[in-house]
From TrEMBL:
This is Alkane 1-monooxygenase. It comes from Salipiger pallidus. It is a multi-pass membrane protein. The keyword Electron transport does not apply. Keywords: Cell inner membrane, Cell membrane, Iron, Membrane, Metal-binding, Monooxygenase, Oxidoreductase, Transmembrane, Transmembrane helix. GO terms for biological process: lipid metabolic process. Belongs to the fatty acid desaturase type 1 family. AlkB subfamily. It is found in: Cell inner membrane.
Amino acid sequence: MIPSDKVARVTAALPFWLTYILPPLVVLGAVLGGLWVLLPPLATWYMFSALDAALGLNTQNADPQTENRHLVWYRLGVVLWAPVQFVTLFGVIWYLGQSDHLNGWETFGVMFGTGVMTGSVGIVYSHELLHQRNRLERNLGDWLLAMVLYSHFRSEHLLVHHHYVGTPRDPVTARYNEGFHRYYPRVLRDCPRSAFRAEAALLKRRGLPWYHRRNPFWKYAALQLAMLLLSVIVAGWSGLVFFAVQAGVAIWQLELTNYVEHYALTRRYLGDGKYEHVRPHHSWNAAHTATNWLLINLQRHSDHHYKPDRRFPLLQTYHETEAPQLPYGYPVMTMVAMVPPLWRRIMNPKVREWRRTWYPDIKDWGPYNRAETPLPRSVS
C-alpha cells in the first residue's frame, strides 16, 4: 500500500502527464505533413504499448483513503486537458483551413491523429470528470464530450451502464462471439436511445415531462451545436468536415474500449427481473504500467465499477484470482478487436475459463450469449 504522503508527490503524478506530448505531436503533423502526421497514433498506440513491454505490470495500490488535498497534481492534469484540447482542436482546424501545403491524405491524417488524441485522452478524461460531484469538473467533462459529438455518453454511462452492466439492458456489454464490426453499429444505434430513455424516466419520477429544461439533452444539443458552428467560423465548411473526421475517430476509439472492457462478462440472472450485484470479476482488467498512465488507470476497471466516484490515482488493482486479466493493455487489445478471428482466438478461451471458474453450475450459456435473459428491473 502506497501511503498518502508518497501519493501526493509531484514525481508520483508526473507519469500521468505524459499524455501532454500529444497536442504538440498533432500540431507538428499539421505543420510538417508527410509521415509526421502518423506521430499521434504511433505515440498513443505503440509507444505506450512498447513501454508496457519494458516496464511490465504495476500491481501497487495507493491508500484509498487518501484525501483530495493530496491529489492536486493528478486533478490539475485532468482539468487542464479540456482547455488544451479545445485550443489544439480548433487551432488545427483553423490552420488546415487557411493553409494549402498538405494533400488530401495528409489532411485526413492530421484529423485522424487529432481524433486519436480526443478519443484516447479526451473522452477518458471526460469520463473521470463526469463521475465527480464538483460542478466545474462535470461541466468540463461535458465540454470534452461535445468536442466529439458524443454528449449522450454522460447519461448512458451514469444512468445505464453502471446500473445494468453485464445484463441485456446495457448496450455496451459486448456479447460472446459478437465481433466488433457487429457491435459498433449496434451501440451507435442503441446508446443514444437508451440514454434518452433513462433521462426521460428520471424526469418522470420527479413529475416532469421529457422536454423539461432539466433534461440534459438540451445542454448536449447546445454544446454540440456550438462546436459545429465554431468549426464553420474558423475554417468554413471544410472546418465542419475536419471536425467530423476527428469526432468519428474519437467515437470509434471509445467504443473499441467499451467493447474490450466487458466482453462476454455477464451477471447471473437470479429470477424475477433480478441480477446479481456487480462484482470485480465482471470487468476485464490490465495492470500494465504505461497504458495505465495513458488511460489514467481506466484499466483498473473492476475497482471503477466498485467505487465509480473514486479518483483515478486511488483505483485499486486486483489479483487474477479476483478479476479477469487481459494479456495486454487496452491499446493492443483494441487493435486485436479490429480483427474478429484473432480476437476470438485470444479471448474466447479466456471467457470459457472465466465461466468455469465463476459459474460452474450454469450449463446453458445460450441465453447469455444472445442477450436473451430477461431484462433487469429498471432502477427506481
